[in-house]
């Protein structure tokens, strides 16, 4: 009787592959909005607590990205935009990605709960769960409203930052949540307009695949018309100073102008590509000015009270 033993092959994944699993480009914007939520919250946060919270949010966002890539590996391999990701390229196995993501998720939530506070940890856990289970597993492949509902996950980081700083929630971080929530559909629908063949090929019911490009362009304009005044709302409600109000108004007008160009576009996706790119800049600039207004002292109003 002979015995045979299976020998595990060494992993070919490098550090860069695991960093790529965490979706660093997406993660950077998520972490930045969380940082703004942390810094504009009232009171003083000890630097060690603040850095710990930010590290946990970063790791938690990376965990969500890795678990998303693990579950979506089958469709990622068939889409031009995602075929170069670590799992489709064979650099990381699905099991390695799942284990990596789950480990990061547990570490980030437990550490945030033990070293910062329970509310922030609960919000982080909910964010990871919502992005992975509600959006990735359920909504993404079942409804054209996937981005609308699933966008809640990407909108929660400022609330996590605020909760990490204060242990509570308030109207102000909810406003920041709403800004990102209504920013998400026009941002991703602009992308899906010029990537429509990718989504159709793998059966993901993005809005342009299901309802057509004309309806998608109309919906982009509708959501942008809601987003622009929401971006100015912190100033209108007295939470910020005039510097933020003027900047947010200018950024909002630029978004509406681009949405109108997308709405009137026919047979081309140039405006869609421009809107997708500018929408990232819009959110970054909006939160950057919010932070500058806070740091300027005296211009920010209630956030700094």
Indicate the CATH architecture of the largest domain.
Orthogonal Bundle
Under CATH, the topology of the largest domain is which? Tetracycline Repressor, domain 2
Number of domains: 2
Chain-averaged pLDDT = 92
Give the helix level as a range of percent: over 70%
Q: In terms of per-residue confidence, which ranges show pLDDT below 50 for 5 or more consecutive residues?
A: 1-8
Element-level helix/strand string: HHHHHHHHHHHHHH
Question: Which superfamily, in CATH terms, is the homologous superfamily of the largest domain?
Answer: UbiA prenyltransferase
Instruction: Let me know the number of strands.
Output: 0
- What coarse outline follows from CA principal-axis ratios? flat
Separation, N- and C-terminal Cα atoms: 79 Å
Radius of gyration, CA atoms, in whole angstroms: 21 Å
Structural account:
The protein has 305 residues and is mainly α. The chain folds into two domains: 15-168, Orthogonal Bundle (Tetracycline Repressor, domain 2); 170-305. The chain is built from 14 helices and no strands. The protein has helices spanning 15-21, 24-40, 47-71, 73-76, 94-115, 118-139, 146-155, 157-166, 171-194, 196-202, 207-211, 213-236, 242-264, 270-296. Helix 1 packs across helix 3 (47-71) and helix 3 packs parallel to helix 6. The chain is flat and about 50 Å long. The model is unreliable at 1-8 (pLDDT under 50).
